[in-house]
Amino acid sequence: MEIKSGFTFWNLVFLLMVSCVKGFIYTCGGTLKGLNGTIESPGFPYGYPNGANCTWVIIAEERNRIQIVFQSFALEEEYDYLSLYDGHPHPANFRTRLTGFHLPPPVTSTKSVFSLRLTSDFAVSAHGFKVYYEELQSSSCGNPGVPPKGILYGQRFDVGDKIRYSCVTGYILDGHSQLTCIASSVNTASWDFPVPICRAEDACGGTMRGSSGIISSPNFPNEYHNNADCTWTIVAEPGDTISLIFTDFQMEEKYDYLEIEGSEPPTIGLSGMNIPPPVISNKNWLRLHFVTDSNHRYRGFSAHYQGTFKEINFNWACIS
Ligand SMILES: *[C@@H]1O[C@H](CO)[C@@H](O)[C@H](O)[C@H]1NC(C)=O
Ligand SMILES: *[C@@H]1O[C@H](CO)[C@@H](O)[C@H](O)[C@H]1NC(C)=O
């Protein structure tokens, strides 16, 4: 009984403390101009305050874009977030919300404004983050970053420059090992292929090329195995897009899933027993990540992919 009432007392004290600090919001941030610089969360690296709501808006010269490269990143997972906005911090410009302890890849804005917003809850903090930002001229592709277990060769990222990737021993490179910075649409430059990934030699997946083909989960149409972690990269020529059409789909709801990167929204999570609608890529690549847990197995998925050429789209537009 005594212990029980003790708990109740401390629970009450805790609740009071929480509600007292709840009204306190720590604001910080600001507007940043200039060719380059760094942003650190308040108190970095000794921990950011609770109840933080800090917004940084980076403004580049018109026609330039902004690239941010993370140098350090640690936020209390699932409670504290760094939200990225491709423009001013309005919901319409929201891109992604970062949390946890993995260093995120570099991000490039599509126009001359980019915003970051740190929000933390009312308990527990972590080191925080440090990010380097830089204005990109229209002739620069920016640093595309290094994938885990990967090595990047090359330090120049302007139109015409080539860079190369390899993987450390025990890992296979999926995707293209060489990237070229090309002048894409009006006044921008971009890499011709996505950054490759380094896949453990014994992990399933692979790189799919060619105008069409089929991707299926391991053992399809028999049951997939437990604890699977497969990654496939589908690449088409620069300027083309890829459509992925599912013909079969059976997975343990929520626990086994297929994640698709490279379309709109940037990441799609699929699970369950219904055949999902087709997925169309934004650019010339799609990445599929298939993950299963340690029990329950089903048939998995099978999908047909097909490259769509820009020229064909253009002709259709002319006819109609
Ligand atoms: C900005 O760029 C200049 C020239 O490349 C460099 O010397 C300087 O250290 C950079 N500033 C920051 C904050 O990294
Ligand atoms: C943070 O501040 C912005 C503007 O000052 C506000 O719109 C937003 O709702 C706040 N976010 C949180 C989580 O309090």
TrEMBL record:
UniProt entry tagged with the keyword Transmembrane helix: no
PROSITE patterns noted in UniProt: CUB, PROKAR_LIPOPROTEIN, SUSHI
Taxonomic superkingdom: Eukaryota
UniProt keyword list: Disulfide bond, Repeat, Signal, Sushi
Keyword Signal found: yes
InterPro entries: CUB_dom, Sperma_CUB_dom_sf, Sushi/SCR/CCP_sf, Sushi_SCR_CCP_dom
Pfam families (alphabetical): CUB (PF00431), Sushi (PF00084)
Signal sequence region: 1-23
CDD domains: CCP, CUB
PANTHER family reported in the protein's UniProt record: CUB DOMAIN-CONTAINING PROTEIN, OVOCHYMASE-RELATED
Name of the protein in its database record: Uncharacterized protein
